[in-house]
From TrEMBL, chain A:
The gene is cysN. This is sulfate adenylyltransferase. CDD domains: CysN_ATPS, CysN_NoDQ_III. Keywords: ATP-binding, GTP-binding, Nucleotide-binding, Nucleotidyltransferase, Transferase. One of its GO terms (molecular function) is sulfate adenylyltransferase (ATP) activity. It holds the Pfam family GTP-eEF1A_C. One of its GO terms (biological process) is sulfur compound metabolic process. Its EC number is 2.7.7.4. It is an enzyme of class 2 (transferase). Residues 1-215 form the Tr-type G domain. Gene3D superfamilies: P-loop containing nucleotide triphosphate hydrolases, Translation factors.
Automatic annotation (TrEMBL), chain B:
Keywords: ATP-binding, Nucleotide-binding, Nucleotidyltransferase, Transferase. The gene is cysD. Its EC number is 2.7.7.4. The keyword Nucleotidyltransferase applies. Residues 28-253 form the Phosphoadenosine phosphosulphate reductase domain. GO terms for molecular function: ATP binding; sulfate adenylyltransferase (ATP) activity. This is Sulfate adenylyltransferase subunit 2. Coiled coil: none annotated.
Length: 414, 299
């Protein structure tokens, strides 16, 4: 079954939980026992409606405070495909969670309260979707029932958003607008008669029509080696396979390839998946490949087509989203994890903090948690990479704090 | 002949995760319960390392109250694939006085498994424990990372988890810590069953309909067994049932079913309005039952 990954961000007030609950409810994805548990909890809290956030807020602290702290994953399916929603809180102090959710999603739903229109939070969501290059954005104009299903209100919001879209750094992004009411179910799963002026699809129709693809865009083929498979059995005595996940594009038997960082030339002789062999594998496959000559390839190396070499540099300019409570300052050392490769890195300088409301940059010397800024980094060994906007998988990395081992930040190479 | 490998995103992701485990850790182990999720993990691990053998052992924390069909299945699978199996018994922890057996109507050895598991991790110095938990199963599991760090006491710090971005998994830990790894995090129950059907994976017979001596309590179908406490007024009856999820006998309820083949089981699940863990007696203890157990080191 195909899987479509969606990210949502927003506060409880936007009706985000209600929208997700409505999607689950109207696709019959809420099982009786889960629904009963929601009814019971809603009643205990004295609500006279079903509080669907109780289905998504999994931690005791979240239920007590009525907030979403972390990324929650919600699953539902239709006859056509399976859906995974990465649901994140929308406030500025959760920017890192939004970035996390957006990193693995093909589609992003931005909720707007029809009564409030485009607000600061909308800017931030859109900015993150631009920065991470999420392929599809659905602007869900919610609570249309509270503005008398007014076409004028919808058109005004759409115009405001298009003005925002004009500032987008990712022009290929597809933006769609849907007027709806999560509470009443208008245009969520079923088409409504309340807005005859709207001829477009409901949210679910829109999602059903999208073809699930890898979240990574098409680019040049990149094969980061995860591990070397050497069975050392009688039958496979000389077998030496390089196992990894293929990104960017297809790879074929017979392709002339180069192994990085050694720059050794070779040729693909076999593509294995479990006990079968193939002539060609598509991006997104976890495969094992054999090369023509016996060369030294280890974890962290990357196999690419010989006429499509990436950049190989020891100094990189990046946009970093900081995720740790310990601030990022110049001169400190971190481990960079880029694909399957880990390299010791020194933060050279922090240039600025980028405002997530498109108002520009402010010169800075440090990045605090949830801040995004331009950072230059020096590496102890060269990295073989592409710019993030050329090849997502090969342009993103995480920074690991060697003293705590935590994932302290995420970066996008320019 | 030109053959192009079409890829299944969930399978590809799981294989990727297995390969990260073997590369980032020194002593991984696969937690094997004999249930369908851990059987699916074994197939995915086979695919990840073929033509080499699965490069880590299986660990079964045996409550002593398992369905005999599960144990027989386990031993056969291990033999066929030439795997290493480690079994550690909850009974030993009880005999050594480390844990006290629960008593009464709802007594179960389910939560006692935690001590045995943590002891085994310490005994073998396992640094990565691969499990078949899925995020769709339960709301605390929905918050779980793919690489989920546990401290020296096996505890889960749910409010302070590492962010996981793209495919980048960070398995760096201190000595004494370990990571729980969940390769099928993003699979749903239906995904697992569809995969079992597609791959024709063999599973224990109790997943298919059979005649069983049972009794009804709290609207759930309990197995009649010396391991399950039964009140005198709880009458034994014979019913055609199957199990949708398999824990040990004291924590798993059966469902009425005539589904005798995988495709019938898949059809039944598609039509079902009850969630899988709706038949887990261990989750019904309180709203935060799973979160509390996980904080203490339960898998």
């Amino acid at each position: 079954m195909e899987v479509l990954k969606i990210a949502t961000a927003g506060s409880v007030d936007d009706g985000k939980s209600t929208l997700i609950g409505r999607l689950l409810y109207d696709t019959q994805s809420l099982t009786t026992d889960k629904l009963e548990a929601i009814e019971k909890s809603s009643k205990q809290k004295g609500y006279d409606y079903l509080d669907f956030s109780l289905a998504t807020d999994g931690l005791v602290a979240e239920r007590e405070q009525g907030i979403t702290i972390d990324v929650a994953h919600i699953y539902f399916s239709t006859a056509k495909k399976s859906y995974i929603i990465a649901d994140t809180p929308g406030h500025v102090e959760y920017t890192r969670n939004m970035v996390t959710g957006a990193s693995t999603s093909q589609v992003s739903i931005i909720l707007i309260d029809a009564r409030k229109g485009v607000i600061e939070q909308t800017y931030r969501h859109f900015f993150i979707n631009n920065l991470l290059r999420v392929k599809e954005v659905i602007v869900a104009v919610n609570k249309m029932d509270l503005v008398d299903y007014s076409e004028e209100v919808f058109n005004k919001i759409k115009a405001d958003f298009e003005a925002l879209n004009a500032k987008s750094t990712f022009k290929e992004q597809v933006v769609s607008y849907i007027p709806l009411s999560a509470l009443t179910g208008d245009n969520v799963v079923e088409k409504t008669e309340a807005m005859p002026w709207y001829k477009g699809q409901t949210i679910l129709e829109h999602l059903e029509a999208l073809e699930p693809t890898d979240v990574y865009e098409k680019g040049q083929a990149r094969f980061p080696v995860q591990t070397v498979i050497r069975p050392k059995t009688e039958q496979y005595h000389d077998f030496r396979g390089y196992a990894g996940k293929l990104y960017g594009n297809n790879i074929k038997v017979g392709d002339a390839v180069t192994v990085l960082p050694s720059l050794t030339q070779s040729k693909v002789t076999n593509i294995h998946f479990f006990d079968k062999q193939y002539d060609e594998a598509v991006a997104g496959s976890s495969i094992t490949i054999e090369l023509e000559n016996d060369i030294n390839v280890t974890r962290g190396d990357m196999i690419v087509k010989s006429d499509e070499l990436p950049q190989i540099e020891k100094d990189i300019t990046t946009t970093v989203c900081w995720m740790d409570s310990k601030k990022l300052v110049g001169g400190t050392k971190y481990l960079i994890q880029h694909n399957t490769n880990r390299v010791l890195a020194k933060v050279d300088s922090i240039k600025n903090v980028i405002a997530t409301d498109y108002s520009g940059t402010t010169p800075a010397s440090q990045l605090a948690i949830n801040e995004i800024g331009e950072v230059t980094i020096k590496l102890s060994k060269p990295l073989y990479f592409d710019a993030y906007d050329k090849n997502k998988s090969n342009g993103a990395f995480i920074l690991i704090d060697p003293s705590t081992n935590t994932t302290a930040g995420v970066g996008f190479i320019k | 002949m030109s053959s192009v490998l079409k890829t299944n995103a969930l399978e590809s992701e799981a294989i990727y995760i297995f390969r990260e485990v073997i590369s980032q850790f020194e002593k991984p182990v696969l937690l094997f319960s004999g249930g369908k999720d851990s059987i699916t993990l074994v197939r995915l691990a086979q695919k990840a390392f073929f033509p080499a053998k699965i490069p880590f052992p299986l660990l079964h924390v045996d409550t002593g109250h398992n369905f005999p069909e599960t144990i027989a299945f386990r031993d056969k699978l291990v033999e066929e694939l030439g795997l290493e199996l480690i079994v550690r018994n909850v009974q030993d922890a009880i005999d050594e006085g480390k844990v006290v057996e629960e008593t009464g109507k709802y007594s179960s050895r389910n939560s006692l498994q935690t001590t045995t598991l943590l002891d085994a991790i310490e005994e073998f110095k396992f640094d990565a424990c691969i499990g078949g938990a899925r995020r769709d199963e339960e709301k605390a599991r929905a918050k779980e990372r793919i690489f989920s760090v546990r401290d020296d006491f096996g505890q889960w710090d749910e409010k302070n988890q590492r962010p996981e971005l793209f495919d980048l998994l960070n398995g760096k830990i201190e000595n004494g810590q370990n990571v729980r790894v969940f390769p099928i995090s993003n699979w749903t129950e239906l995904d697992v069953w569809s995969y079992i059907e597609q791959e024709q994976i063999e599973i224990p017979s109790i997943y298919f309909s059979h005649k069983r001596k049972v009794f009804i309590r709290d609207g759930m179908i309990w197995s009649h067994s010396p391991f399950v406490y039964q009140d005198e007024d709880e009458e034994i009856e014979e019913r055609i049932v199957r199990f949708r999820t398999v824990g040990d006998m004291s924590c798993t309820a059966a469902v009425d079913s005539y589904a005798a083949t995988i495709s019938e089981v898949v059809g039944e699940i598609r039509a079902s309005t009850i969630s899988e863990r709706g038949a887990r007696i261990d989750d019904k203890r309180s709203e935060a039952a799973m979160e509390k157990r996980k904080q203490q080191g339960y898998f």
